[in-house]
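Re: beginner question about structure tokens

> Can someone show what the tokenized structure looks like for a real chain? I only ever see the sequence side.

Sure, here's an example I had lying around. Input first:
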Amino acid sequence: MARDESSSYHHGDLARAALDAAYVLVAKQGAAALSMREVAGGLGVTHRALYRHYADREALLDAVAARGYEALADVLPAAPGRTKDAPRAFLQAYAGFALAEPEIYALMMARDGRRMATHPALRAATRRVIALSQQAFGGGPQGSAAQRDRIIALWSLLHGAIALYRAGLIRAGSRKQFVDYMLKLAGERISD
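And the corresponding structure tokens:
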């Protein structure tokens, strides 16, 4: 008797299970290791079953990146008003996530902006991180060009410093020292 693929997955929500499995795989082995067959095999379904939920490997990677941005947003401090400690708290949380989840962070930063624009969950998750950045760093009226430029400069600094730290090109004895160094590099950009 032929197996009915639609009823063969008995653990519940295949889309969520596939995303969970893909997230774990990327976190452990990096985005290059992700394949639809690998995820499907781990779940006990055929890879064709996953295509009902994800158009292709890239769509599954977009979903993993969206979950990564949500996880990042969940650890970033939400501040109803900007305080003098907000930038430090933001940098500590951001760097902590990036260093604790290096493969997920690498995938998040590698997603193409055009793909982000067409993937609603990924777009919403990145906007959430941007909104938290705006709360922490201010820099002009909400949504202004000055604020946008300030956030881009700070995010570029942060992303670049994390990459250099991970590569061993920025040496710091602890994460706190690394964050202190990033604050020093940010200088007047965070003191406005």
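Each token stands for a local structural state, so reading them left to right follows the chain. The CA atoms of residues 65 and 109 lie 8 Å apart.
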